[in-house]
């Protein structure tokens, strides 16, 4: 089974996240393949000192690892064991990381999710938006590390409220094997570009993050024609290709009213979605493909490329929309 964690990682308009989903699309914070393959030797999850509840868990496999916990495995407190220490940067609270993972039900011993099977890693931010067990287990670990985590039912409560086909019960311990693939930048980085004279104004908060888009005397009263993108910061990464998974920070405003209706900065976690596949509003598909990773772009979206004339019936923002998007990663 693959993709089960996508229920918990999905975005919901009820939670205030409008962007930039197409109506009727099922969304998942998905991920892509591990960039470097490693030989996965059979290893028992033992620590360097003392005894651990994870001592009896066995991890084996070449390419796609296997996690064997037996049955009726449980822990009283969430705990983690580093099986292989990486040589990359240390992960800290608030960081966003890309990981491959396997998830196993400790009670039954059955695997209920696996990103290796379809080469689709997971992107998660280690803050209050993350499953508490993930933050506890991955905080202060290095990129490149392999980490085994046993998560109590309390620390996995939000996941336990997911689809019934996960086969999880309220008191189940969940065991996760994580390979920390990379740490994702928190904002755009590159060379600043000169704005057009008739461009709307981008506003910034006290931390220097984009906080909205406002009409100026020189900017148009409405966005006519096609969706357009203006590069504010030119990143030095690879160009975004249709079909890739995109990781972005963004803020969205109505135009010309300037009312902010959504912001990943305020949620303190970037958004992840497939680009060029109709999973987002047409404006995003049309303008973000071809941008370079690391860029910050101002998107001007006429109503027909946003949520259309019937946006209010869908409880979506109406009219023309403007977004400032930081392209953090694409894979």
**Intertermini distance:** 22 Å
Give the radius of gyration: 21 Å
Number of helices: 5
SSE-based structural type: mainly beta
Enzyme class: isomerase
Catalytic activity: [protein]-peptidylproline (omega=180) = [protein]-peptidylproline (omega=0)
InterPro entries: PPIase_dom_sf, PPIase_FKBP_dom
GO molecular function: peptidyl-prolyl cis-trans isomerase activity
Describe the structure.
The protein is mainly β. It folds into two domains: 31-184, Chitinase A, domain 3, CATH 3.10.50.40; 190-330, Chitinase A, domain 3 (Roll). Helices cover 8% and strands 32% of the residues. Strands 10, 13, 14, 15, 16, 17 and 18 form a seven-stranded antiparallel β-sheet that branches. A hairpin with a 5-residue loop joins strand 2 and strand 3 (66-68). It is elongated, with a radius of gyration of 21 Å.
Quick recap of the structure?
By secondary structure, the protein is mainly beta. The protein folds into 2 domains: 31-184, Chitinase A, domain 3; 190-330, Chitinase A, domain 3.
Descriptors:
mainly beta; 32% strand; EC 5.2.1.8; seven-stranded antiparallel sheet; rotamase; six-stranded antiparallel sheet; peptidyl-prolyl cis-trans isomerase activity; 5 helices; 8% helix; Chitinase A, domain 3; peptidylprolyl isomerase; 331 residues
Topology, element by element:
Layout: H1 6-9, E1 43-44, E2 58-60, E3 66-68, E4 79-84, E5 96-105, E6 111-114, E7 122-125, H2 132-138, E8 146-151, H3 157-160, E9 174-184, E10 190-192, E11 201-204, E12 210-214, E13 228-235, E14 245-255, E15 260-263, H4 264-267, E16 271-274, H5 282-288, E17 296-301, E18 320-330
Antiparallel strand pairs: 1-2, 2-3, 4-8, 5-6, 5-7, 5-9, 8-9, 10-13, 11-12, 13-17, 14-15, 14-16, 14-18, 17-18
């Amino acid at each position: 089974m693959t993709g089960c964690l996508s229920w918990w990682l999905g975005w919901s308009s009820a939670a205030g996240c409008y962007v930039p989903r197409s109506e009727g699309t099922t969304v998942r914070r998905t991920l892509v393949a591990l960039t470097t393959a490693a030989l996965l030797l059979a290893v028992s999850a033992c620590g360097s000192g003392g005894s651990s509840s994870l001592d009896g868990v066995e991890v084996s496999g070449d390419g796609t690892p296997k996690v064997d916990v037996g049955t009726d495995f449980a822990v009283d407190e969430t705990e983690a064991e580093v099986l292989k220490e990486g040589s990359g940067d240390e992960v800290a609270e608030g960081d966003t990381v890309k990981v491959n993972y396997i998830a196993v039900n400790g009670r039954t011993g059955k695997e209920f999710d696996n990103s290796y099977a379809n080469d689709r890693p997971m992107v998660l931010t280690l803050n209050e938006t993350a499953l508490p067990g993930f933050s506890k287990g991955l905080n202060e670990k290095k990129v490149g590390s392999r980490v085994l985590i046993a998560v109590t039912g309390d620390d996995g409560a939000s996941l336990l409220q997911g689809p019934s086909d996960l086969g999880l019960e309220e008191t189940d311990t969940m065991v996760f094997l994580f390979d920390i693939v990379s740490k994702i930048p928190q904002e755009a980085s590159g060379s600043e570009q000169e704005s057009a004279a008739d461009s709307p104004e981008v506003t910034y908060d006290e931390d220097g993050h984009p906080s909205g888009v406002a009409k100026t005397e020189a900017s148009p009263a409405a966005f006519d024609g096609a969706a357009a993108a203006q590069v504010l910061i030119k990143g030095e990464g690879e160009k975004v290709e249709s079909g890739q998974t995109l990781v972005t920070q963004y803020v969205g405003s109505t135009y010309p009213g300037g009312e902010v209706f959504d912001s990943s900065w305020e949620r303190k976690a970037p958004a992840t979605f497939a680009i060029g596949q109709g999973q987002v509003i047409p404006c995003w598909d049309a303008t973000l493909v071809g941008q370079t990773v690391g860029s910050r772009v101002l998107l001007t979206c006429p109503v027909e490329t946003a949520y259309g004339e019937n946006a209010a019936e869908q409880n979506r923002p109406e009219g023309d929309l403007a977004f400032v998007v930081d392209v953090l990663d694409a894979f």
